[in-house]
Design goal:
The complex is a heterodimer of chains A (370) and B (482). By secondary structure, chain A is an alpha+beta fold. Chain A has a five-stranded antiparallel β-sheet with strand order 3-4-8-6-7. In chain A, strand 11 and strand 12 form a beta hairpin. The two termini of chain A are 25 Å apart. Chain B is an alpha+beta fold and 482 residues long. Chain B folds into three domains: 226 residues, Uridine Diphospho-n-acetylenolpyruvylglucosamine Reductase, domain 3 (2-Layer Sandwich); 106 residues, Alpha-Beta Plaits; 94 residues, 2-Layer Sandwich (Alpha-Beta Plaits). Chain B is built from 19 helices and 18 strands. In chain B, helix 2 runs antiparallel to helix 4 and helix 11 packs across helix 13. Classes of the chains: A alpha+beta (370), B alpha+beta (482). Chains A and B meet through strand 7, helix 7, strand 9, helix 8 and helix 9 of A and strand 9, helix 9, helix 10, helix 12 and helix 18 of B.
Chain lengths: 370, 482
């Protein structure tokens, strides 16, 4: 169902729904499974409703295009610091990414290691639960501990607890300058050592990735400060074979996992940074990979393979992290758990929460649990 | 402030409960002598006191699980307690409860500089987390004023903030994982040394849940390398409006100071008297602190003082060195002690959109006259988290009630202008009955549904956070099910 323009219309639609609903914003980051039942299109609920640059806050309806928000922020020299990913290239989609989708997927880019994730910048939400009730939580101020933090629960819940209708965001100033240190031809293990040294320094590294064998370290801020920190970091990392300072590193390649584009199947694995090389080392020949977040985020691209999927999730579990199948043919996605299976007591809590927020089990059913 | 009456049936089972607790805990870890349980009768909201039935001091996750399993089986409410520094009454006992203190669990379990985290038992104090890593150049960022005494357990329960969270965020932004013991004794690990949840973000909802969903015994905390240096600038203005405009201009200029603190005339006078910080006497004082190398600090302070000058400051003093920095901070950091010396006071914690600052301060001033109680304002100006301090006389009958009524009006005003009841202290009992001002019934129902899932019998810190009448049906049903 498209053409829904208001929160109330969405609430009414959910309340009278008689079967499963597939919730859609811009359809740019939908995970593997095919749509079930009616499509609930939120993209008609669009527009920035409040923006106070002096308070670093912006409120927008869930269907608002991310590009529209970023343009409004850029006009005031501000930005979304969590650097939302653009999945269109990876998934081969052409839609318009919406802010609701970004929050529902907790989609955070390279700056997550320094500034925080989408969930850290979400100050408040309004959503329609599975019974069609409108619920609000949090607000539009930066510090708020009034009651339970359902904002965090909604961020990354992929629409399975409720349909987001509005989000309030903390925004940050944009920067005057950006430079990237490039350390050439390092193994995954040496790369993570270099990235750990950089991230453990006082120089405020805002991106640390391993791309095609090179380490990229990003510094942002006022021009003089960036130059000072780049020089300081260069000498601090001399033991890793020297670093070039470049002005034109394309961090959208890291943000959007460009090195694994074109793969039939793509996995996103979150582990302790020093375990990143273990994941990379365990990959069969010919599998493509990229490390972000100082080694803590590994993107893996390959042909669709149930065996590889199970191996990755098994390994992630043993390392205390998680692996998610971000892209894959329908056959693979329906055969395996797309999300990392949780230990029984945690899975029980998640299942009971879903049962409370979506008692009929109609919101993106089966997406997060098999 | 009303609390539910103690359940006589639970009180009648005290001897059995104590005996069962003694079976699983070492002697000395179960306290049931009324002379000793008095020590746990209140937290930092000292106006309300009630000794618990029993206090227990477990020393491990296993002991916490044993205690909770027994209390679950016996139907005894449990009030978790960190260091007892809550200003909201989060650790206030009821006469029929077991207080579960985590003070004996204060070890550092793992320190990992490569992956930038430390794992601690949650009885450890906030400042001693930094203490464990600072010789290697690292620190734990959230810094509540009570950081010398407050425990990580309480920080997680209340999602504590601090003066420096404009740059570094609050507890939830620095908490990577927890070991959580559920009321039935089940132990779960949420999060860890990796980033973000693979499924629902349960860690995110645990943080700030005020000890109502489980007892957090261990925590994985993000640590950061200390900046090369930090330096504040102090500025004074003729009015709160001008100070507020200056703050907005600083933020709009693209500088992100690590802290922006505001004090009004009353606080300036009280703090100056107490700490001799050499503050200018004016209507509004700002302390703005920036971090980095010396050259980076100079550049940022130059930009900030340029902006300040456009707002006709009556004082503008850039710190020249560590000694002067300490002096500039001395008054602000002593604010609560300084006012405590001259009066009993209640500290509010509402947050407002910073654009509403002048209006809200003016209204608070008017209310101060209406209620006949003086009020001072100190707050984190960058994020709108206010701390109005309302003075009253605890020995004067009716004064506390007047003060509470005044406080409630201020918090309603915060919500009215688009803010919230509490920015970093938590709801506890103090703001419990105002929750309906901020949230509609369906909003509260959704939050209580989360408690239903984690603690179906409503035994964990049950009479907090939600208005008593709103949670009554659930608490009564849980009692009846015993």
């Amino acid at each position: 169902m498209s053409g829904l323009k208001t929160e109330q219309e969405i609430a009414d639609f959910v309340r009278v729904a008689s079967g499963p609903l597939t919730i859609r914003g811009g359809r740019t980051r939908t995970l593997g499974l095919a749509a079930q039942g009616d499509v609930l299109d939120v993209s008609g609920l669009s527009g920035i409703t409040l923006y106070e640059p002096g308070a670093l806050t912006l409120v927008a309806q869930a269907g608002t295009p991310v590009a529209e928000i970023e343009a409004a922020l850029a006009e005031q020299n501000q930005r979304l610091a969590f650097e939302p990913t653009d999945m269109t290239g990876l998934l081969g989609r052409t839609g318009t990414s919406t802010i609701g989708g970004v929050i529902a997927a907790n989609a955070s880019g390279p700056r997550r290691i320094q500034a925080g994730a989408a969930r850290d910048f979400a100050l408040g939400v309004r959503f329609v639960d599975g019974a069609g009730q409108v619920i609000k939580n949090g607000g539009r101020v930066m510090k708020n501990v009034t009651g339970y933090d359902l904002v965090k629960l909604m961020a990354g819940s992929f629409g399975t607890l409720g349909v987001l209708t509005e989000v309030s965001l903390k925004v940050l100033p944009a920067v005057e300058a950006e430079q990237t240190l490039v350390l050439r031809a390092l193994s995954a293990e040496h790369a993570v050592r270099a990235m750990s040294a950089a991230l453990g320094s006082p120089y405020e590294v805002s991106g640390a990735a391993w791309v095609d064998g090179d380490v990229w370290l990003r510094l942002e801020g006022f021009t003089a400060s960036v130059a000072y920190r780049a020089a300081s970091l260069q000498s601090a990392l001399a033991a890793f074979g020297g670093a070039d300072v470049v002005d034109d590193a394309d961090w959208t390649q890291v943000r959007d996992a460009a090195p694994v584009h074109g793969s039939q199947a793509v996995w996103r694995i979150s582990v302790k940074p020093s375990d990143g090389p273990t994941v990379v080392a365990g990959l069969p020949d010919g599998v493509r990979s990229l490390m972000d977040w100082g080694g803590g985020l590994v993107w893996v691209g390959h042909d669709a393979s149930e065996a590889l999927h199970h191996a990755l999730q098994h390994q992630a579990a043993s390392l205390g992290g998680h692996a998610t199948l971000i892209k894959g043919p329908e056959a693979l996605c329906s055969a395996v758990p797309v999300f990392q299976p949780e230990p029984a007591p945690v899975a029980a809590l998640s299942a009971q929460l879903r049962a409370r927020f979506d008692p009929r089990g109609i919101l993106n059913p089966g997406l997060m649990v098999a | 402030m009303q609390m539910p009456d103690p359940d006589p049936q639970i009180l009648s089972r005290k001897a059995r409960v104590v005996a069962r607790l003694r079976d699983v805990l070492p002697s000395g870890a179960v306290i049931d002598d009324p002379a000793e349980t008095r020590a746990y009768e209140c937290d930092a909201l000292t106006a309300y006191r009630c000794p618990p039935m029993v206090a227990v001091l477990p020393a491990s996750t296993q002991e916490v699980a044993d205690v909770l399993r027994i209390c679950h089986a016996e139907g005894v409410p449990v009030v978790p307690r960190g260091s007892g520094t809550s200003l909201a009454g989060g650790a206030l006992p009821t006469a029929d409860c077991v207080i579960l203190g985590v003070a004996r669990m204060n070890a550092v379990l793992e320190t990992d500089y490569d992956n930038r985290f430390v794992r601690v038992q949650t009885g450890r104090t906030n400042l001693s987390v930094t203490g464990a890593v600072e010789s290697d150049g690292f620190f734990y960022a959230p810094d509540p004023s009570s950081q010398l005494a407050c425990a990580i357990a309480g920080n997680i329960a209340m999602n504590s903030g601090g003066a420096h969270c404009l740059k570094y965020g609050v507890t939830t932004n620095n908490l990577m994982g927890v070991t959580l013991v559920q009321m039935d004794g089940t132990v779960v690990e949420l999060g860890g040394a990796h980033l973000d949840a693979g499924g629902l973000d349960l860690l995110g909802v645990i943080c700030g849940s005020e000890g109502q969903l489980g007892v957090v015994t261990e925590a994985t905390l993000r640590i950061l390398h200390k900046p090369e240096g930090a330096r504040p600038v102090l500025m004074g203005f003729d009015s709160a409006e001008i100070a507020g405009a200056c703050v907005a201009d600083i933020i709009k200029a693209g500088v992100l100071p690590v802290a922006i603190e505001f004090m009004d005339r009353m606080l300036i006078e009280v703090c100056e008297d107490f700490a001799k910080a050499d503050y200018p006497m004016c209507e509004a004082l700002l302390i703005v602190e920036v971090e980095g190398s010396d050259a980076e600090i100079d550049a940022q302070l130059a930009l900030i003082t340029d902006i300040a000058k456009r707002h006709n400051p009556v004082a503008l003093r850039e710190s020249a060195g560590p000694e002067e920095s300490a002096r500039i901070w001395a008054g602000r950091k002593a604010a609560f002690s300084a006012i405590g010396r001259v009066s009993d006071y209640m500290c509010l914690d509402g947050t407002i959109p910073v654009s509403e600052l002048p209006y809200v301060l003016r209204r608070i001033g008017e209310m101060s006259k209406e209620y006949g109680l003086p009020v001072g304002n100190v707050f984190h100006a960058g994020d709108g988290n206010m701390h109005p301090l309302i003075c009253y006389d605890a020995n004067k009958p009716g004064d506390l009630e007047t003060c509470e009524a005044f406080g409630a009006e201020v918090l309603k005003l915060c919500v009215e202008v688009g803010g919230c009841l509490t920015g970093e202290h938590g709801v506890g009992i103090e703001k419990r009955d105002l929750m309906s001002v901020q949230y509609a019934p369906a909003d509260l129902e959704a939050q209580m549904a989360v408690k239903d899932v984690f603690d179906p019998a409503w035994l964990l810190n049950p009479a907090k956070v939600f208005p008593l009448d709103v949670s009554e049906a659930r608490r009564v049903a849980a009692l009846a099910a015993e």
